[in-house]
């Protein structure tokens, strides 16, 4: 519970301070198991801090309110709203420095040159833990680490270091830290990539009570070739390795009570496939690599098409055949569209002659890989099903993969265009604020 937010909202609604303190003390006492007297002291301090913090206006401290919430717009739900917000983030960032690949390219990792003369690239990626895995620290750590490494690998670079950030709410058990780190370091041990740095904090300090955990894992890689999404070309072949999913599939299994499927997600097959490709020196021959995560094939195909200016065509049955059978059975029994959920397959887009070599080396590593489609002139993504070519697009949210997500639904809100207008306005306000602060600091530097 965010007790600061709770107090602030009550005060904003005009509720008397004494009543706010009383209600807040009751909630704190109930959640913490404290006496009302002890909780009342907390409530009094919270109200005082909230009053002091929000009693004055300040251009730097305030932010322009769009009136659009994260949930309403689908941010973090790997669909149309989420993709839109991420495209606007690039506008806010602007040109903060030289980058070969940045957020504007819709890849999950960014790339810079370490040494222009030697042609050495450095890639950096960061992934947040799955929000529904807060009570399952090990699996959360395992999958977020693997995700960060995947993002580095698909840029054509090899991971050299991992770092982490863990935030646990005030009532969370300290053992969560160690279980989470164990999950992270399990992947590091299996791949030989060291965990070198990180931080551990509470969520909201004393102002958030509960046991919720969140955080992220980042990865740094180096290489001499780049396999960005924008490099896909007409005539290329699309390959996919078998996908058993990661955090998303584990979440589905847990919250549908099908815990036995979680074990299927615990592997480093994606990384083994990448290592085989790297060892065979095939990376310079590839055009694009990606991991099937952001809203599944629907989301990734849309983004690749957008940045490459090409059209992607998939064979439905071939894509279906590449999903881990146990995972596929679970998804189909729950009526979850496997095309719209993260299955964590490695996607390789390359010329036909290279595709054969890639399949040979990946199979020699014991990983299943198949040709599932091709790239052609045009725009958009398509699937061939029962002899018919059909367009595939990301939904407003990724496939609903938990009972609660099915209640929330996948449909686009009727007022989406109005919300998008307000999001655009928020972007302009943030850019304006950044410029103001940068100019102010530059003037001070030159004074």
From TrEMBL:
Domain PurM-like C-terminal: 233-383
Organism of this sequence: Archaeoglobus veneficus (strain DSM 11195 / SNP6)
PurM-like N-terminal domain boundaries: 107-210
GO molecular function, one term: thiamine-phosphate kinase activity
GO biological process: thiamine biosynthetic process
Listed InterPro entries: Ni_metllenz_mat, PurM-like_C_dom, PurM-like_C_sf, PurM-like_N, PurM-like_N_sf, ThiL-like
Pfam families the record matches: AIRS, AIRS_C
PANTHER family: HYDROGENASE EXPRESSION_FORMATION PROTEIN (PTHR30270:SF2), THIAMINE-MONOPHOSPHATE KINASE (PTHR30270)
Name assigned to this protein: AIR synthase related protein domain protein
Record lineage: Archaea, Methanobacteriati, Methanobacteriota, Archaeoglobi, Archaeoglobales
